[in-house]
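Exercise 7b. C-alpha coordinates:
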Protein backbone atom coordinates (compact mmCIF):
# COMPACT_ATOMS: atom_id res chain seq x y z
CA UNK A 1 0.00 0.00 0.00
CA UNK A 2 1.58 3.22 -1.17
CA UNK A 3 -1.21 5.53 -2.37
CA UNK A 4 -3.64 6.97 0.15
CA UNK A 5 -6.56 9.31 -0.48
CA UNK A 6 -7.68 11.34 2.54
CA UNK A 7 -11.13 12.91 2.39
CA UNK A 8 -12.35 15.69 4.67
CA UNK A 9 -16.10 15.12 4.57
CA UNK A 10 -17.25 17.78 7.03
CA UNK A 11 -20.05 20.09 5.99
CA UNK A 12 -20.11 23.59 7.51
CA UNK A 13 -22.92 24.37 9.94
CA UNK A 14 -23.40 27.46 12.12
CA UNK A 15 -23.19 25.26 15.22
CA UNK A 16 -20.32 23.13 13.88
CA UNK A 17 -17.67 24.85 11.79
CA UNK A 18 -15.54 21.73 11.37
CA UNK A 19 -12.48 22.81 13.36
CA UNK A 20 -12.03 19.42 15.06
CA UNK A 21 -12.44 17.60 11.77
CA UNK A 22 -9.94 19.91 10.04
CA UNK A 23 -7.42 19.35 12.85
CA UNK A 24 -7.79 15.58 12.52
CA UNK A 25 -7.55 15.77 8.72
CA UNK A 26 -4.37 17.87 8.91
CA UNK A 27 -2.80 15.48 11.45
CA UNK A 28 -3.60 12.43 9.30
CA UNK A 29 -2.04 14.02 6.22
CA UNK A 30 1.02 15.19 8.18
CA UNK A 31 1.60 11.71 9.60
CA UNK A 32 1.16 9.90 6.29
CA UNK A 33 3.00 12.17 3.84
CA UNK A 34 6.54 11.18 4.88
CA UNK A 35 5.76 7.50 4.22
CA UNK A 36 3.11 7.37 1.47
CA UNK A 37 1.88 9.11 -1.66
CA UNK A 38 -1.05 11.16 -0.37
CA UNK A 39 -3.81 12.97 -2.23
CA UNK A 40 -6.55 14.92 -0.48
CA UNK A 41 -10.03 16.26 -1.05
CA UNK A 42 -11.99 18.69 1.11
CA UNK A 43 -15.60 18.13 0.10
CA UNK A 44 -16.91 21.50 1.35
CA UNK A 45 -14.55 23.24 -1.09
CA UNK A 46 -16.26 21.53 -4.02
CA UNK A 47 -14.92 18.82 -6.28
CA UNK A 48 -14.80 17.57 -9.83
CA UNK A 49 -16.47 14.18 -10.20
CA UNK A 50 -14.03 12.89 -12.84
CA UNK A 51 -10.98 13.94 -10.80
CA UNK A 52 -12.36 12.24 -7.71
CA UNK A 53 -13.06 9.05 -9.65
CA UNK A 54 -9.44 9.05 -10.82
CA UNK A 55 -8.23 9.55 -7.24
CA UNK A 56 -10.33 6.58 -6.10
CA UNK A 57 -8.85 4.38 -8.82
CA UNK A 58 -5.33 5.60 -7.90
CA UNK A 59 -5.73 4.98 -4.16
CA UNK A 60 -4.78 1.76 -2.42
CA UNK A 61 -6.62 3.02 0.66
CA UNK A 62 -9.15 5.76 1.41
CA UNK A 63 -9.47 7.52 4.77
CA UNK A 64 -12.65 9.50 5.46
CA UNK A 65 -12.20 12.12 8.14
CA UNK A 66 -15.72 13.09 9.21
CA UNK A 67 -16.80 13.63 12.80
CA UNK A 68 -20.44 14.03 11.68
CA UNK A 69 -20.93 10.29 11.30
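Sequence design result:
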Amino acid sequence: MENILVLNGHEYYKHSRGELNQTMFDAIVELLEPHYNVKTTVLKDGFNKEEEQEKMLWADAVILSNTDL
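Instructor comment: DSSP finds two helices and three strands in the chain. The first strand starts at residue 3 and ends at 8.
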